[in-house]
Amino acid sequence: DMSEEQRQFDEKISADQKVEPQDWMPEAYRKTLVRQISQHAHSEIIGMLPEGNWITRAPSLKRKSILLAKVQDEGGHGLYLYSAAETLGVSRDQLVDALHAGKAKYSSIFNYPTPTWADIGVIGWLVDGAAIMNQIPLCRCTYGPYARAMIRICKEESFHQRQGFDALLAMMAGSDEQRRMVQEAVNRWWWPVLMMFGPSDADSVNSAQTMKWGIKRISNDDLRQRFVDAAVEQGKVLGVTFPDPDLKWNEARGHHDYGTINWDEFWSVLAGDGPCNAERLGTRVKAHEDGAWVRDAALAYANKDRTRRAA
Ligand code: 3HC
């Protein structure tokens, strides 16, 4: 028969109450949260790289300072999410070591290159747009620390999306060359952004269980559909097209139909064979190694300071 703790946990979940770090929880619930929250944190940190390489090349001081603020926000989101993961009994070092050893996943989307300034606007508009779509339901996640982190992060994400759309609007009001640059960036990012929402529901190994536990609230395909419906309308305002001949409004469904996603590409990017996987991970490992002396010095100072205070 079921243990009293399991019964109480099940009651909490079905009453849609929050599970807090000190509460009893099934080991599988804890493990899947460590998996998802750490991957989310890794995504934020790796996500700083594609945009970071445009900070020194932004076209104006205004765009430079906005991009600087956004990349700093992503770093903060990462640290916030590592802290949420640590409430589940894992250390940040363990999580970061797993990432650097190629054992932990991060969002596939950050393994694509950013060859032009328009890519930065498209990342803000579509990548952060998809991230918001995915993160708003997570504000209602049953695990307290994760839900609270999401509420704080979603506030900053809406600024990220608006600044990207605004940068693209400026370019669309510019020269033909700028309009072409925006359209080419949309063509490059559209399909990889749809892959951000994960495999189709039929191929999603975690969804059934995480939806029962109130971690995932809306399925991969339903979120993807919401995103497509919203992006098509925004694309009309911007004056861009999408690289999908099957993308069209389906009155009967009340949604846009769209073409088939290249799942071979998705799974190969997850396996580490995307355009920038090696470069992204290599950059992170180098930054971590080059920063070791700072961490050691800070720890040495903290220990000395603690001994001095204790004396
Ligand atoms: N990139 C990398 N891995 C992915 C993926 C993607 N886009 N989509 C799915 N996967 C992985 C899953 O992690 C899982 O592998 P695992 O069991 O080894 O972890 C496998 O593919 C099967 O997918 P599932 O649908 O079964 O997995 P989930 O139930 O975990 O759903 C998810 C995937 C929707 C991404 C979910 O994990 C999630 O909501 N994560 C939190 C949100 C997140 O990580 N967002 C990243 C967006 S980028 C970002 O936030 C930065 C922004 O500020 C720009």
TrEMBL record:
Gene3D superfamilies: 1.20.1260.10. GO terms for biological process: phenylacetate catabolic process. InterPro entries: Aromatic_CoA_ox/epox (IPR052703), Ferritin-like (IPR012347), Ferritin-like_SF (IPR009078), PaaA (IPR011881), PaaA_PaaC (IPR007814). GO terms for molecular function: phenylacetyl-CoA 1,2-epoxidase activity. GO terms for cellular component: cytosol. This is Ring-1,2-phenylacetyl-CoA epoxidase subunit PaaA. It comes from Chitinasiproducens palmae. The lineage of its organism: Bacteria, Pseudomonadati, Pseudomonadota, Betaproteobacteria, Burkholderiales.
